[in-house]
Specification:
single chain, about 475 residues, alpha/beta, Rossmann fold, 4 domains, seven-stranded mixed beta sheet, five-stranded parallel beta sheet, about 35% helix, extended, binds S-adenosyl-L-homocysteine
Length: about 475
């Protein structure tokens, strides 16, 4: 006998949602009691050809059999019952029998649901909210049925009954709408305008006549003009999707095309419209960055001119380090409509992660955002002055020279520093030390990009909050997040 693969076997993998077309397909239900009856009813409603295998069946099931709605296989389960089945539900009250059915079905590659036995099931039946053809399925993968049920109840209460009529109307008129608007873009704009208009409210108020008329008017009026394409430079923040702004989220959900940096995580990209085209335009080490930038410009132009809503998605803020300025200039020069949606820049995300007030008035009168690598030599003397905070980007490879230059120009060797790696992400790490000890600290801890360095008296706050360890050399005090 083949062991039934358990749904829990891949604990981290979510179930794949699936709406199955069972119309006219053979489904076997094993069991003759109340649970089996409920399953049979739902399957019949979906148009399945149900056969019921059980020695005895309860009266309601018997009636269905007598009325010819259901085929009865009388007796004990035998694998031959599975011969033509697409799907199996084991709903008897005997756990051992259910397992046997599940094993036999799985051995033949047939999906099987065992009532109240997640481990033996290869598919679940979700809690659902139904408005006619429109269905919302809720599943916790068996982990928290009560939570799923709660959610279902909330949706049930919130979604108007009239959604059923709306879905019905669209289904009825599908062919006409298709003929009137053969192109997908047009059709989508038509539906969007319809859904934003009076029609849903008329249906909700029970005014079927008014709704019908509104629909006919909309159909006669044609599709709204395609809006000219546009580009939004959007800041994705330091990584945690929770740190996106509402405006950024809206832009992602409206986007047709997303040109994103390499480091933008799936957590954020998952928030985007499902059918948005995602293009990784990240710069890679060893690549010609000017060529990559030229490609970004060309893609923005191409898609905006094709009337698409383009989101240029960058980590942090789109105009802080990176080439947002050049992108804006390019868009202006080519007459493309654009907007900028700011994001939480890495300095702010890292300061928050480390619990540091960058401009704490007791210790700093200013904060400077500094790129460790750049074409010009910075004014080290100015940067080395006390009572100011430096937030250094792209600095992991430059810590040695940075620390040296600042100390050489007069910044105290014991100036507090904090390094934040992957700020706001699950693998965030924070280290506190001193300016002189910084390179050794980063080496010892294997700090890697993306990391942000905060230099200045204000960083002492983080030193106190983080656990302090002694470095091998003994001359550097290292602190690491507990
Ligand atoms: N526009 C971005 C910065 C791009 S430069 C912003 O506003 O944040 C890339 C540098 O940003 C990285 O080398 C690193 O120094 C910093 N950075 C980006 N994300 C970070 C994060 N999650 N944690 C720490 N530093 C980060």
């Amino acid at each position: 006998m083949t062991a039934t693969p358990s749904i829990d076997a891949f604990a981290a993998a979510p179930l794949f949602p699936l709406f199955a077309d069972l119309h006219g397909r053979a489904v076997l239900v094993v069991g003759g009691g109340t649970v089996a009856r409920r399953k049979v009813e739902a399957l019949l409603e979906a148009g399945a050809q149900v056969s019921l295998g059980a020695p005895e069946v309860q009266p309601a099931l018997r009636q269905l059999i007598e009325r010819g709605r259901l085929q009865h296989r009388r007796g004990e389960f035998e694998p031959a019952w599975l011969d033509d089945a697409w799907l199996v539900v084991a709903a008897s009250n005997a756990a051992a029998l259910n397992r046997k059915v599940a094993d036999a079905a799985t051995a033949r590659g047939i999906f099987v649901n065992v009532v109240d036995d997640i481990d033996a099931s290869s598919f679940h039946v979700p809690a659902r909210v139904r408005r006619g053809r429109l269905q919302i399925a809720v599943s916790s993968g068996g982990a928290a049925p009560v939570l799923a049920r709660r959610l279902r109840e909330r949706l049930e209460a919130e979604l108007p009954e009239s959604l059923e009529n709306l879905a019905e109307l669209f289904a009825r008129e599908r062919a006409r709408i298709g003929r009137r608007f053969p192109r997908t873009g047009e059709r989508r704009r038509f539906f969007e305008r319809l859904l934003d208009g009076a029609l849903p409210k008329l249906l909700q108020a029970g005014d079927a006549e008014g709704a019908r008329a509104a629909f006919e008017r909309a159909l006669a009026a044609g599709a709204p003009e395609a809006k000219p394409g546009s580009v939004a430079l959007v800041g994705a923040g330091p990584g945690d999707p929770g740190l996106l702004t509402l405006k950024a989220l809206r832009a992602l959900q409206d986007a047709d095309v997303i040109l994103h940096d390499r480091l933008i995580g799936t957590g954020i990209l998952d928030m985007a419209r499902r059918d948005a085209e995602r293009i990784d335009v990240g710069k890679r080490v060893g690549e010609n960055h000017d060529a990559t930038q030229a490609r970004i410009h060309a893609l923005m132009l191409h898609h905006a001119r094709a009337s698409r809503r383009v989101v240029r998605l960058q980590g942090g803020d789109p105009l802080v380090f990176g080439r947002g300025g050049e992108e804006l200039e390019f868009l202006r020069a080519h007459g493309i409509a654009y907007s900028v949606i700011p994001g939480i820049t890495a300095a702010l995300g890292s300061a928050a992660a480390a619990g540091i007030a960058l401009t704490d008035r007791r210790h700093a009168h200013s904060v400077t955002l500094l790129a460790a690598r750049g074409s010009e030599t910075p004014d080290w003397r100015a940067l080395a002055a006390p009572h100011q905070t430096l937030a250094v980007y792209m600095g992991v490879g430059e810590l040695e020279s940075l620390s040296e230059s600042l100390i050489q120009h007069g910044r105290g060797a014991d100036t507090p520093c904090v390094l934040v790696e992957n700020a706001s992400l699950p693998d965030e790490r924070k280290f506190a030390g001193t300016l002189a000890g910084l390179p050794a600290l980063a080496r010892a801890q294997g700090v890697r990009a993306p990391a942000l360095l905060i230099v200045g008296e204000v960083a002492a706050q983080a030193q106190r909050a983080l656990r302090v360890e002694r470095c091998r050399g003994g001359d550097v005090s290292i602190a690491q997040a507990a």
